[in-house]
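Put briefly, the fold is written as integer tokens. The lines below illustrate.
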Amino acid sequence: MKKLYNTIKSYWFKLPRQLRFIIVGGFNTLAAYLLFVFFIKVVALPYQAAIIFQFFLSINLSIFSMKYCVFCSHNNIKKEYLKAWNVYLTMLAANYFFLWITTDILHFNILYSQAVFTVLSTILTYLLHRFYSFRN
């Protein structure tokens, strides 16, 4: 089993960092978006509450998968964790603002608005993690 793990690991880290970010970030984003949809459609929460619950459930998965699977960082875990939290809190505030504008003021569909924000925030999150959170 360890041999299989090491084989997969050696192939994985030969992939370009941007591709690893897209794969891992795609998984994390899909998980977060599905949680958001669940809280909106199944639990029937307002988007303000749905974002908070989704955020706290998905944030640690994102931080640790980015640290270890994308950026291969071996720096101080506490410092990087706090920096990554800052990035994600900033993105949460931007998410709230974006949804407020698009749904409350412009009356766009909440799920489409969240999907658009997700695409836009992906690029910014990559840059913030690369040059701030997990900088080597």
Summary: The chain is about 85% helix and 0% strand. The radius of gyration is 16 Å.
